[in-house]
Design a protein that fits this description.
This protein is an alpha/beta fold. It is built from eleven helices and ten strands. A six-stranded mixed beta sheet has the order 6-7-8-3-9-10, with helices on both faces. The protein has a four-stranded antiparallel beta sheet with strand order 2-1-4-5, with helices on one face. It starts with a helix and ends with a helix.
């Protein structure tokens, strides 16, 4: 992970243009203000981390980006256009995919079938045509299956492709969930605590896959993560939240030396 650790000197994937911009986002649940006037952007080709203590509003922000929550104030701009309020499946169709803090796989389905579900937003055949599996629908599914198999090869999970995911170890389930998100060919990939519950070896594997996705596919990534060693190693820029407000934004070295961040987060047993 040393290449990312020296990311200031590293040529970037993509154009570096702004892919998504969040302007003045505020989110309330009744009388509780979960996010208060937060603004930041995500550039094409970067790994953008969102960090902060528990209850800082990180997951709420990720849910705003993915369409699960709708802010009462502020604007979301994606690929140069203001995004209206829309449901998660419409957001996914725009090219935004995500993983979840608590694994959300179909436990009785195989690894291959779970990854195939990530292709659903890209399938053009009707449900009836897919059920008959004839003509164009057959050819389309074959093409999607080939792409799913390439993701399986990329993630090194060929040996478990026909195994129900509910029987797999936790770290492999996390990898399958990453594969399902990649199957959607996202322009923006959201990762909600991808290292949660992992041991050191599993974290190293997941970090490598995240870097490979970013480097080889050029996929823009926004992630929430509590492991500061991982965040500082793999992120290009970091936004820091505390009590629903933004208290820091910049490259890892800048965040590491930000006194507000140290006081609120990094200085507390990290």
């Amino acid at each position: 992970m040393s290449d990312k650790a020296n990311s200031e000197a590293k040529p970037k994937n993509g154009s570096g243009e702004i892919l998504m911009e969040l302007k003045g986002i505020s989110l309330r649940f009744g009388g509780v203000l979960a996010i208060s006037d937060v603004s930041f952007d995500i550039k094409e080709g970067e790994i953008r981390a969102i960090i902060g203590p528990n209850g800082a509003g990180k997951s709420s922000m990720l849910n705003v980006i993915s369409g699960f929550y709708h802010p009462q104030e502020g604007e979301i701009w994606f690929r140069g256009e203001r995004r209206p309020s829309m449901r998660p499946h419409r957001v996914a169709a725009q090219g935004i995919a995500r993983t979840f803090q608590n694994i959300a796989l179909f436990k009785r389905m195989t690894t291959l079938d779970n990854i195939m579900t990530g292709r659903m937003t890209l399938m053009k055949s009707s449900f009836a045509a897919q059920a008959l599996w004839w003509g164009p629908a057959e050819r389309e599914e074959t093409e999607h299956r080939e792409k799913a198999e390439r993701i399986i090869d990329f993630l090194g999970i060929q040996a478990i492709r026909k195994i129900p995911v509910g029987t797999l170890p936790y770290g492999l389930q996390k990898r399958v969930e990453l594969g399902r998100a990649l199957a959607a060919e996202p322009k923006l990939l959201l990762l909600d605590e991808p290292m949660a519950g992992m041991n050191v070896e599993e974290k190293e594997d997941m970090s490598r896959f995240i870097l490979d996705v970013n480097d080889e596919f050029g996929t823009t990534i926004a992630l929430i993560e509590h492991d500061m060693g991982v965040v500082m190693d793999i992120s290009d820029r970091i936004v820091v939240m505390d009590y629903g407000k933004k208290i820091g934004d910049g490259r890892p070295a800048e965040i590491r030396n930000n006194q507000h961040v140290i006081d609120a987060y990094l200085g507390v047993a990290h």
